[in-house]
Amino acid sequence: MSEQQSTLSTTHPTVSLSKWKNEDLCGWGRYPRVKALSIYPNSLEEVRESLGESVTQESHLLAYGHGRSYGDSGLPGEDTKVIHTRQLNRVLHFDESTGWVRCEAGMSIYELIQTFLPKGYFPPVVPGTQFVTVGGAVCNDIHGKNHHHDGTFADHVRRVEILTAAGEVVICDAAQNEELFWATVGGLGLTGLILSLELKLISVNGPGIYMESIKVRDLDHFFEVSAESGDFTHTVSWIDCVAKGSSMGRGIFMRGRHTDETPKPRALGRIAQAVSPLLTVPVSMPNFLLNPLTIKAFNTLYYGKHPARDLSQTVSYEPFFFPLDFVRGWNKIYGRRGFLQYQMVVPKTADHKAIKEILHEITKTGMGSFLAVIKEFGDKQHGGLSFPAPGVTLALDFPNYGTDLLSLFHRLDRIVMKAGGRVYLGKDARLPQDHFQEMYPEWIQWKATRDHWDPKGMFRSSLGDRLGLTLK
Description:
The protein contains 14 helices and 20 strands.
């Protein structure tokens, strides 16, 4: 049997059904919620054993990592069992001369950093939280602040080991079994169960990030600063999505790069580091705390506190890359109703018409977001269900206002589709099937590849069912 393909024996003893437990699951947005049978294997061998019965009985399966996908992309479909992967987090091999690490799919970005930063290495692409698994990073084809410079997570991955619906363990990447690889990249876990992969870490000289922050007056000023930031590997801007008129698009632009400078100790920073382990949201906050008035007040204060002059400093990687990780369980701030994120990308145009229309539509409703970011993507695009594409991406978190919010999202979809853009499936909880098909014209080819490797629809998710990707 070839190195790229081996067979999962279905004669393995299966894990006792007593190890499967019924539990409630949700994404980071806490909406929607589902019930599913779940298991927490401790090793790849236990995965093989626990799936022996599932393979022969043609059950439905889905991997679940740290649950940081916002909507239902990581939630199981109907009659689907869940394989929790977070305990499959071992380093299998590391080449210190090249930075290539082979690890199990449940290893998190946090664990990678804790293990390899002391050795002078850092993950090449990170999202806004370090508590995501590397398997989830591939399945969502995550992007970071450096997409314009380094592409997506998948651009730094090779030799992905996938357990397919046939019970075979297949190795794939851009050079072998490439159709399966590119369908898996951004494929939201619907092509198989990722067991392990190899990732090329980047060499760094320490934890420091040289960062500049600039107060931008409006949307046009944002694009001016973005165009002047080519020397920085990482760029992003917080945006005040409540501001209207001549202030529309104002915000704080941040740009940075890894540096060998040591972050300077500051009193406020030391205090923040000391209290960070104590900062947690233990229970869901009352829904009334987040409303249009409090969101508008936050946006005004956050923008106003930044001085008019540009700021530059060397900071630790954590506040630069993962500011929201500072408060544990911050998603509970939205209350039991949860929240929905709307992230889209549209092609860049000289008049920035689509972005302006989106901001105008939001400000008309009064349903603002206090977590809103905007950045420009680079030219790297992978097709299939992968989200990043050349253009401008805007991400906004909204309290779950119910039907009024869904109606707003529907109108935003129309603007995005007219501009030739798309919504990020890894953050989505409500995109209609017809909107999805227009935004992702390569879905037919993707589904053909997926159906080739999973003809009976073993791997199934709530999002896949909703968008017609997994239902027959």
